[in-house]
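Feature request, filed as a ticket because there's no other form

It would be nice if the structure record came with a short human-readable summary line next to the tokens. Right now we just get the raw output. Example of a typical job, pasted below so the devs can see what we mean:
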Amino acid sequence: MGILLLVRHGQASFGTDDYDVLSETGWEQGRVLGRWLAEHGPVPASVVHGGMRRHRETWEALAEGAGLDAAPGIDPGIDEDWAEFDHLAILARHSEITGVPLDHGIDRRAFQEQFEVSTEHWAAAGAESGYPEPYDGFVARSRAALERLAALPGPALVVTSGGVIAALAAALVVPDGAELGPVWARFNTVIANSSVTRVIVGATGARLLTFNEHPHLPRELVTYR
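Raw output as currently delivered:
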């Protein structure tokens, strides 16, 4: 039986020219998580991160906090299937479908409302709806990435994005054949930056053990975007 730690990246740089860069808060979230894991465990035997810059930087911050940056034998792999869905492409396609123009200058709350409406439509729509990556394809690649992670020596840790973790959590708790989209949407709106979701893998397959743990974060470091 093995344990998989799915870590959401630290806070990225919302509203800047390059979102895919950790903010100063995001770097600190990663370091705090690293110190917490060093104290409470488990220390990972295998590490993977997605190919996005915010994934790599979160691992670097975590490794610094945990004292793993100089530890022998931990050489993180990169798996592109842990990448987040392209939210800008989804927003743009949803705007085309509805005829409602995008407002790129809106504040965080208004953006979140726009984001939730667009992604809920994406999750409910079929492949023929014209989204660059259909929701079913996104879930399939996320599940394939989880299977590869489960095959590594454990405990295994991956740094990825909230949408991926939410998709896997939904897939692990929703009965086969049931609609994943509404459950995914609920998970996706509450997952905190640098949170840990634990999946246990045994003879009966993967099971969700915990979701969105963030006891390592003081109140002032809790962020969701």
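Something like this underneath would help us a lot:
Residues 86-132 form one domain.
The mean pLDDT is 89.
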